[in-house]
Amino acid sequence: MTARRGWLAVCALTLLSLAGCGIRPTEVPVDAGPAPTRATCDTRPELVDGATSDVYLLCGSHIESVRRPVELPGQDDRVAVAEALLAELQSHPEDDEREAGFTSEVPASLRVTGPEADDPAPALRLSSKPSELTAVALVQIICTFAHSDSLGGNGHTVLLGGPGSHTSEAPRPYTCTSAMRTSPEAAHSPVDVS
């Protein structure tokens, strides 16, 4: 009789373990975020002669900086510096960056210009409204521009506007924060610096 009880106990435990993890199925869709990736987000820094700049790329579901050799024009030409950095964001990731899981969402058709007549001097204007860019692309641009010494960036804030001189396209301050890099959707909320 003891062997029979032991056998029943083993069967009962087996059935319980096969019954599931305790989470009940639901018909309500659950957004648990992006699927995990095997991306390491680590690249080996290359020894490069000359100037380098931090370019912010997408890795998995967050934005990380990658140091690249970039020939930037003189600091007096802010628009040319912004154009060079934008071109880096639009270029395909290097082999080691791609292997580490880096990509970019900055559209190849996007252009950058200097401020309009009524804009503050440090403003930069994009050929698309910032709100029309994907959140990831916008964070890539914000962080790359804000961390550029050549753009006079303070490592945090950049003034970006859309095309034209309409009030709705006026340059607004955007801040590159760690929260924004881990959750790019926050990019569509400009910073109030008043």
Automatic annotation (TrEMBL):
Domain of life: Bacteria
Stretches for region Disordered: 162-194
Keywords in alphabetical order: Signal
Signal peptide: 1-19
Protein name per UniProt: Lipoprotein
Species of origin: Streptomyces radicis
